[in-house]
Design goal:
The structure is a homodimer of 432-residue chains. The first copy, chain A, is an alpha/beta fold. Chain A is built from 17 helices and 14 strands. In chain A, the strands form 3 sheets. A 6-stranded parallel beta sheet of chain A has the order 1-11-10-9-12-13, with helices on both faces. A 5-stranded parallel beta sheet of chain A has the order 6-5-4-7-8, with helices on both faces. In chain A, helix 6 links the parallel strand 4 and strand 5. In chain A, helix 3 runs antiparallel to helix 8, helix 8 packs parallel to helix 9 and helix 16 packs antiparallel against helix 17. The longest helix of chain A is centred in the N-terminal third of the chain and has 19 residues. The radius of gyration of chain A is 26 Å and the shape is globular. The mean pLDDT of chain A is 95. Chains A and B meet through helix 5, strand 3, helix 10, strand 13 and helix 15 of A and helix 5, strand 3, helix 10, strand 13 and helix 15 of B. Strand 13 of chain A pairs parallel with strand 14 of chain B. Chains A, B: It comes from Dethiobacter alkaliphilus AHT 1. Chains A, B: Keywords: Amino-acid biosynthesis, Histidine biosynthesis, Metal-binding, NAD, Oxidoreductase, Zinc. Chains A, B: Its cofactor is Zn(2+).
């Protein structure tokens, strides 16, 4: 089912779609942003009617709806969400960074303050599907970071309601409010604010192409986490790997959507052979078989390489969102991994362990962004501010050097701001 | 010289230009990006001829040019650059974060790897002016982070050469190469790579509107630090502040360019009165007096407020790039500051101390971005990757809960990836 390559041909043929490849979608998104910016709720409700086919009275999910959701969900699954939330909270608490300030003996104090953004908005896909796990993964890090107001936007189902698991997860994660809107109009509502939806400082969470393009457009005016493309997994496997495990993992990626990319890079021709058979066998048993098959055939690749080092070079070039190391010595390979969103080590750590359960975030950089950006974390919800203090003596000691540096940059007023203090202190004699 | 407001009217009248207010410039930038992407060096050289009025043979600065620069600079100023570099290195070393991995008793190991980006490019303004301090501020954090290749782009002077202080600073900071190009074409060269300029993973550094729009366009394909607008300072001053100090600091911001914004927010009507006089007096003595005056009159503001708390509310709404606290109790006020790029504490810490000398970075979020983004730091040159390991026993323990969560999201293959391992282990009986 997978197209087969050797390492060289795969690296030559491999290309990624850039966001500039979608001019029409980008223009459509710009129009939506402008409308919502001007007309607020009215525009959001119109687009919800148009794109989600739902006529809403209000965007805000009511307490009655939350209560009904609690009734509707399977208690066992709810308990699993509670445990997953605890794992996610535990892991993200380890990411909290402290402010620091150091008073030096020379009268200088330098430091770095870490403060949370005031308001954050999480986008969670919805409509047909339900992603309570994404609710936990986006809201909990914001809460751990200390964000004052954390809201959720997610598109409504055909009947105008939100999936009960999504609402229950929102309560478990501690979201302050959930709004029934999706697509570019939801991003616009969070970026500009409407009568109902608060203007936030940071927008996070994965979405479809329109959501991603909208985040890109508002980025800079408001903070965004990353530009998420279709999901990817790359499994590096050697002769020790089980074909049935690898096949199951590739399929779990491929079922997301036809654009999802599933790669296996292996040093074992034998495994490659068995893998193709296993993919056929297991795919036939899947509910979303057609999606998975098309995804594998169109986007997937089976790459047979000469060495593990070659495999890891490919990994670092692709910077896969998800990387599985199904190897006899996975920890040694990990040391050579430079670019990846999340790494799943060993045969008993399939990607869903991270998607749902373990605690690390499942919102990850895609389409090669792992070369320069990070998994969603508490860092996304804080900002750092430098703190500088100079005593009169400390300023006197460095004043003329600073004045000299200002001079070569031709900024006399910069020098003057230091000089006026130096001369005042020299007169006062407090420099002695 | 400054327009005067009370707190309420200032907050009402204050607005910021968004990047969408520049459609022509944005289109021009898109064209430049496309040309450089297609034609590489040839296009960059053409734009350098067109915009910088310079005919270049090659973009790369030669060793001979570096040697000549060493001859040309004032040795005392060079020594000051060396000392400033040491201060910057010391401060940024405190930002280095370690990878961590924790093996738990239950057979689970979770961690976070911190790895440097492979290649980074720093943009430093040039042409008429020279900013060796910006060279230090952009290159050193990348070096401290462990970036393998760090290059610099800066527009050439009329004669085709680069200011000697810029080149000397590049050597002191440890840049691997300097390229003679600026504007959107330089950003394009770093984003796409050319025959001469390497494609980088991260582009940092301040620039003019075209540079900023270009960074915005390539963001996502390559990492960028932030979208920098005109420089800003906000001085919060009470009756204890000296008008001559405050005036000097506002002027040091205003001399940058006519778009630079200088605000003083004070609880003292007396200070406000003296400040206007001091601004007139000191401005007359400046080389860049005309720029500073126009900047103060067009962009500046003197805001008289009833209380320090009101002043700090204004600070948090504006999120100024530079915040000076010229107060009798500046440390207490600092505790109420939520949004600012860098804070300069007390009367003897004028902004130039941070611009040139103290060690914290001078590349800071502007135009309100301090609400969600941070001062440039080592963080900008690293990315974080999650690491997840589950033992067979650990997977067995959680398998059915994970399968349940996958089920409610309608992703059967996700559940299957766990189930196939659980059933294998149950058969093998290694779960007992």
């Amino acid at each position: 089912m997978l197209r087969e390559f050797d390492g060289r041909t795969f690296r030559e043929t491999f290309t990624r779609a850039g966001f500039d490849d979608y001019p029409e979608a980008t223009q459509a998104v710009r129009d939506i942003l402008a409308e919502v910016n001007q007309r607020g709720d009215e525009a959001v409700l119109e687009y919800t009617r148009k794109f989600d086919g739902v006529e809403l009275e209000t965007l805000l999910v009511s307490e009655e709806e939350f209560a009904a959701a609690e009734e509707a969900v399977d208690p066992e699954v709810r308990q699993s969400l509670v445990e997953a939330a605890e794992n996610i909270r535990d892991f993200h608490r380890r990411q909290v960074q402290n402010s620091w300030l150091e008073h030096q003996a020379d009268g200088v104090a330098l430091g770095q303050r870490v403060t949370a953004v005031e308001k954050a908005g999480a986008y969670v896909p919805g409509g047909g599907a339900a992603y309570p796990s994404s609710v936990l993964m986006t809201v909990i890090p914001a809460r751990v970071a200390g964000v004052e107001k954390v809201v959720l936007v997610t598109p409504p189902q055909a009947g105008g309601e939100i999936n009960p698991y999504t609402l229950v997860a929102a309560k478990i994660a501690g979201a302050d409010a959930v709004y029934k809107c999706g697509g570019a109009q939801a991003v616009a509502a969070l970026a500009y604010g409407t009568e109902t939806v608060p203007k936030v400082d940071k927008i996070v969470g994965p979405g479809n192409l329109y959501v991603t393009l909208a985040k890109r457009e508002v980025s800079g005016m408001v903070g965004i986490d990353m530009l998420a493309g279709p999901s990817e997994v790359l499994v590096v496997a050697d002769a020790s790997a089980r074909a049935d495990f690898v096949a199951a993992d590739l399929l779990s990626q491929a079922e997301h959507d036809v654009m999802a990319a599933s790669y296996c890079v292996t040093t074992s021709a034998r495994l490659a052979l068995d893998l193709q058979k296993e993919l056929k066998r297991q795919c036939a048993q899947l509910e979303r078989c057609d999606v998975a098959r098309e995804s594998l055939q169109q986007q997937g690749a089976l790459v047979i390489v000469d060495s593990l080092d070659e495999a890891l070079e490919i990994v670092n070039e692709l910077a896969p969102e998800h990387l599985e190391l199904q190897l006899s010595e996975p920890w040694e390979a990990l040391g050579k991994v430079k670019n990846a969103g999340a790494v799943f080590v060993g045969p008993y750590t399939p990607e869903p362990v991270g998607d749902y359960w373990a605690g690390p975030n499942h919102v990850l950089p895609t389409a090669g962004a792992g070369r320069f950006s990070s998994v969603l974390s508490v860092d996304d919800f804080v900002k750092k501010t430098s703190v500088i203090y100079y005593s009169p003596q400390a300023l006197l000691k460095s004043a003329q050097k600073i004045e000299g540096l200002a001079r070569v940059e031709g900024l006399t007023a910069h020098g003057q701001a230091v000089k006026i203090r130096r001369e005042y202190l020299e007169e006062k004699g407090s420099g002695n």
